[in-house]
Specification:
This protein has about 200 residues and is mainly α. It contains seven helices and no strands. α3 packs antiparallel against α4, α4 packs antiparallel against α5 and α4 packs antiparallel against α7. The model has no long low-confidence stretch (mean pLDDT about 85).
């Protein structure tokens, strides 16, 4: 047996147990169907696209062209990464969920892209806020929102736990990496441009 065998079996068992637990939750509290569907929609392609478009428009109106471009590149890069991982892994979705969804299961695109886009926005906003408590609240609230979106996908039965966990991990890692690059490159270029033009970045 491969050294990874027992670990894979444990993860598969955990996935199955989680699916069964959420199945019992759906049966016991059917009133959660609506709220969970609404939470899931916050991580859907339509909502996230609108969020990115409005955020980029706001950044452009504030003359933060490089940050706007980087925000767009972060979102598009995250989407390509998500699609690539789904094609590479090729995992089938669980059966018997509350809704029917096409496409591969791993990683959860809702979990991954919501982590990338919402956390990137939170980190951009936090740069202009001086009070650390407000920064903590913004980032913390964003993480809670991303967590709820992932849980909603489990509740709806369209993903396994490992799909959602991988989406969270990869999404957060991508957002933090892009933020680090932005801090090292984009913000520095905006400050240099502001010094040259005499305008605030």
């Amino acid at each position: 047996m491969s050294p990874l065998g027992p670990s894979m079996e444990s993860l598969q068992s955990l996935d199955q147990q989680t699916m069964e637990a959420f199945g019992r939750l759906r049966s016991t509290y059917p009133g959660l169907d609506g709220p969970m569907s609404d939470l899931s929609a916050l991580g859907g392609r339509t909502v996230l696209t609108l969020v990115v478009v409005f955020a980029v428009g706001l950044l452009l109106s504030l003359r933060r062209q490089r940050t706007a471009g980087f925000m767009l590149a972060t979102a598009l890069g995250g989407y390509v990464l998500s699609v690539g991982l789904k094609l590479l892994v090729g995992r089938q979705r669980p059966v018997g969920g509350l809704i029917q969804v096409s496409g591969n299961s791993f990683p959860s695109g809702h979990s991954m892209l919501s982590a990338i886009i919402y956390l990137t926005l939170a980190l951009i906003v936090s740069t202009v806020i001086l009070r650390w408590r407000v920064r903590f609240y913004i980032v913390g609230s964003t993480l809670v929102l991303v967590g709820l979106i992932g849980i909603s996908r489990l509740y709806l039965g369209v993903h396994y736990l490992t799909d959602v966990a991988a989406g969270w991990f990869v999404g957060l890692a991508w957002a933090i990496l892009c933020r680090w690059v932005e801090k090292r490159w984009v913000l520095r270029m905006e400050r240099q441009a502001a010094l040259i033009t005499g305008n605030d970045p």
